[in-house]
Each structure stands twice: as C-alpha cells, then as structure tokens.
Design brief:
The protein is of the alpha+beta class. Helices cover 23% and strands 27% of the residues. It has helices at 3-14, 31-39, 86-96, 168-187, 193-198, and strands at 21-25, 46-50, 71-78, 108-110, 114-116, 123-131, 134-141, 207-211, 216-224, 230-234, 237-241, 245-248. The strands form 2 sheets. A 7-stranded mixed beta sheet has the order 1-2-3-7-6-5-4, sandwiched between helices. It is globular, with a radius of gyration of 18 Å.
Length: 251
C-alpha cells in the first residue's frame, strides 16, 4: 500500500467512515464507471479517485476535461429517501462547508451542479442513479489552473481562489465525508434548502437564459424553492423549472 492510500485510510478511519473499497489511481477512463463496476459485486461503500481521466463526463454525457493533477472522485451513496434533484444541491452545499474550502472568498453554486465563483467554474458534480435509493456521485475539482486550450467556458481553480498549498489527500477525505453528510441532510428532508442554497447561488437577481431541450427561457434568476426548482422571473411572471441549463445573459 502506498503512502497516500495509507494516509487517506487513516483519515477516514479516524472519522469512522472508511469505505469497503478505497482506490487511488494515477489514471482511469472514468471513476464513475469504476464505481459502477465495483457496485455490481455487491459492495455498498466505495471511493475511487484518479489524477486524470481519459473518458470523464459531466451532465448529459458532456465531456469532462480531466488534466492531470486535479481531483476526480466517485463514490456510492445510499439514501432512505427516493433520489431526486435536491441531492446534488445538498452535495454542493456540503462541499462548500469543507474545512479546507469554507474560508475561501466568494464560493458559489451554479444551479444545479456546478461549483462556481465570480472567476468561473472550479468544480462539478455528477449524480448517476443506479436504483431509486442508490447513486454514483462523481465530483471533479480543479486544484490547479486549467490550461486555456482545455476549457470551453470560464474556469478557475481552488489555488487561484486563494488556497495556496492544496493538500490533495486531505481534500479527498473531506470531500468523501461531505458527500456522506449531504446524504444525511437529504434523508432528513433537505431542511431549509432554499435559504441555504440561495445564500451561495451564482447569478442571483441577474438576467439569465435557461436552456431546455425544446426551447430557452429568458428572465431574472430568483433562486430556488425548497423542492429544488429554479425560479425565473419572466415577462409572463414567475416560472418554476426543474431541468435545464442556466446561462448568464450577455450584457
């Protein structure tokens, strides 16, 4: 067992959250796919992390660019409550409360699953249900600046946001614990979700486009409701939407 794996096992053991399977890889196709394969064997708790991915993906099968050195992590989460879109919001909120990150300025969440800041996106969350009460949770975090040729949108990293010496193993441990904590919030009904989320919501009270499969809606982003719906103030009034992609309208 290498030193990093031993250190991570020690941190999670101290927190009484050591998974049955824990793998740190240098490269893999997709950590979500790794977890899916392990889950088929009947394992209930698993954590897979890689320094790079060759076939990383985000929402709607979009490519997730995975340059070496950042964190690409996936785990299995079981819930008593049937899964819905609020889980990704709870995961994002709990990541922002991680000890390593919570004092960084201006951390935000872009509905429904982007870890964001005024400087751009620094991470993302992918929840892939495999049953009504079980999901693979994948998270990508930019520890270091992303080469400009690798990004198609405004992006940043936790180092650029002020974390001078990111401790990779410490952050992985904190992320795994944050995901478990998010599952508990979800199982307890996502208490006061709207107020907690809207405190960190990117684009609040700004003109946005909401892109759906068939059309797009323009309006003022007014945060979310407790059921996780996005609230958009349009010329026709307040609209609640549950699926789609939020974009800031160009000035």
């Amino acid at each position: 067992m290498d030193l990093e794996t031993r250190h991570l096992r020690q941190l999670l053991t101290q927190a009484n959250e050591l998974p049955e399977v824990l793998l740190l890889k240098q490269t893999t196709a997709s950590t979500n796919d790794d977890v899916r394969e392990i889950a088929l064997s009947g394992v209930k708790t698993v954590l897979v992390c890689s320094e790079t991915q060759t076939q990383g993906r985000g929402q709607h099968q979009r490519e997730w660019v995975s340059p070496i050195g950042n964190i690409y992590l996936s785990t299995l989460l079981e819930t008593r409550t049937p899964l819905d879109g609020r889980l990704a919001l709870e995961i994002a909120l709990n990541i922002l409360q991680m000890p390593t990150l919570k004092n960084l300025p201006a951390l935000q969440i872009k509905w429904p699953n982007d870890l964001y800041s005024p400087q751009g996106k620094w991470g993302g969350i992918l929840v892939e249900p495999i049953s009504p009460h079980q999901a693979i949770v994948g998270i990508g975090i930019n520890l270091f600046p992303i080469p400009k040729e690798n990004v198609t949108q405004q992006a940043t990293s936790v180092m650029q946001l002020g974390l001078q010496f990111p401790n990779r193993i410490q952050i992985i441990a904190e992320m795994y614990l944050a995901i478990q904590q998010a599952g508990q919030w979800f199982d307890h009904g996502c208490y006061n979700l709207a107020a907690r989320f809207n405190h960190y919501a990117a684009f609040m009270d700004q003109q946005v486009y909401f892109e759906q499969i068939q059309n797009s809606i323009e309006g003022i982003f007014k945060g979310i409701s407790d059921d996780g719906a996005l609230n958009l103030l349009t010329a026709q009034g307040l609209v609640n939407v549950y699926q789609g992609r939020l974009r800031l309208a160009k000035a």
